Amino acid sequence: MVDPTSDLGEDVDEADAPECEHCGAKIVQSPTHRVVTWVEGGAVESTHFCSAECRDAYDQ
């Protein structure tokens, strides 16, 4: 599998692409793609958003 967090989602097949945590849209070659990462229980966790707007709406 190609890393779905690669720059702009290059070379990511839609079947392997991450989904926006807020709206569920597949994120493929999206320059507005946002990834939020944190450490929980000693492991790195992350979640993906298709835009800054979805990222902001998720926090509310």
From TrEMBL:
Pfam families: DUF7576 (PF24461). This is Small CPxCG-related zinc finger protein. InterPro entries: DUF7576.
